[in-house]
Amino acid sequence: MAAKKRPDLSQLAQSILQDVRDDFVAQRLNTRALIDGYVGLPISQLQQKYCPGVTQVDFDLALKELEEALFVKTGPMVPFDNEPGSGVFILGLFSKREYMYLTEAGYRAMAQIGSQKPRTNPSHVHISGTFHQSPIGVGGQITQLQNIHVENDGDLIERLAQLLSQSGVSVDQRSRAEIGHMVELTHQGDLKAVKPLFQKLFGVASESVKQVAWGLLAAIIAKAVGM
Question: Full-prediction pTM beyond 0.70?
Answer without folding.
Answer: no
